[in-house]
Amino acid sequence: MEDKIVSAVKDFANSINSGGKVVADMSSLIDVTSQLPLNSFDYWERLIRSEFSLALRESTPPKWKVWSKPSELLTWLDLISWDGYKREKTLRTLSGAAPNTFFFSLAIRRLNDWVPQVREAARENLPEIAKATNPEFVVEALCIALSNWNSWGRIKEEDKNVLLQIICDEEIAESLRSKLISSTSGPMPSLFSQLGRTPILDENIENIASKAAQPTVRAKAYRSLFEGKISWIEGRKWEWTDIRYCEGRLKPIVAEREVNVQTSLLTLLNLSSEDRSSIVRRISAEILIRDLSNIGVIARDYAEKFASDKSQAVSERGRFALKKLEEIDRANAT
How many CB atoms are located within 10 Å of the residue 243 CB? Predict the structure, then answer.
């Protein structure tokens, strides 16, 4: 794949200096970047930046251009230029749709740029670029960004708000909800949590809980319904465990937002206890233990059901619930 990238970047650089084209030819570059695994985005960005810079230096413009007044042609690849002024100018100059997920991701990542003016330009122009871009590309890029932005050291709250604004567009929101339900792989659980910052899931959490392909997504959705809130990791902060030996750890900062749940506790308990995944049934058993005193006589039926579950994690919780019920019965008898 690296060879294809290098070849496409060189072809693109040569087309910029070609006298036969008014507009640089990105077709081969778009084709190859559409095939890239975006879980290694840092690597591809560094490779393309380096190869593009080298290719521009090595490509020779036609002789007649030597005597003409040079004009700067800004392209999507200038979003990752070594020059911060060029990155900013590119963001303010680009118009129209991003050609694929990769290039829209390049634009999103400027929200974490080390130059404040570039981040400002990204905040101002990303919403318009998103509106013009294929929603499928936008959604894929957002999924990648939301799964990683807690590791972005320079992104600020106002930068995150730009992405949240894009997420709240109804067409984008619907695509994200569909992706949460249909995706069989990928970081959908963390995406669910991050989308919980906005109200786009509020009316659909029960649907996600019952239909999502990934068990961990269903489990998160059920927990949100049981607890009446969605939680997400806001970031991490350093916490000393033993300052004498300079030992410590990064502690997650958890934020949450309340959601209005219309479905009753017993209905949710019944649905989650029948889920095909032990991950979800374990959540159901935990809630049973938490609310034993509020559920009533039917609590014993659920406890016995969980105690006989084929999953050890679920059956342990079921047996614990039965033990607690026996303690409650003895206390009531005295």
Answer: 8
**Residues 191-238: pLDDT tens digits?**
999 999 999 999 999 999 999 999 999 999 999 999 999 999 888 888
- The Cα–Cα gap between 74 and 194 comes to 34
Architecture, CATH, for domain 264-334: Alpha Horseshoe (1.25)
**d(C-alpha 113, C-alpha 255), whole Å:** 25
Q: How far apart are CA 232 and CA 190, in angstroms?
A: 8
Per-chain mean pLDDT for the chain:
90
Range list for CATH 1.25.10 in the chain = 264-334
What pLDDT, in 10s, does the model give residues 79-92? 999 999 999 999 99
Only one residue has tokens 């039917």, namely: 298
Q: Write 231-237 long-range contacts (CB < 8 A, 24+).
A: 231/193, 231/196, 231/255, 231/256, 232/193, 232/194, 232/196, 232/197, 232/256, 233/150, 233/190, 233/193, 234/150, 235/150, 236/150
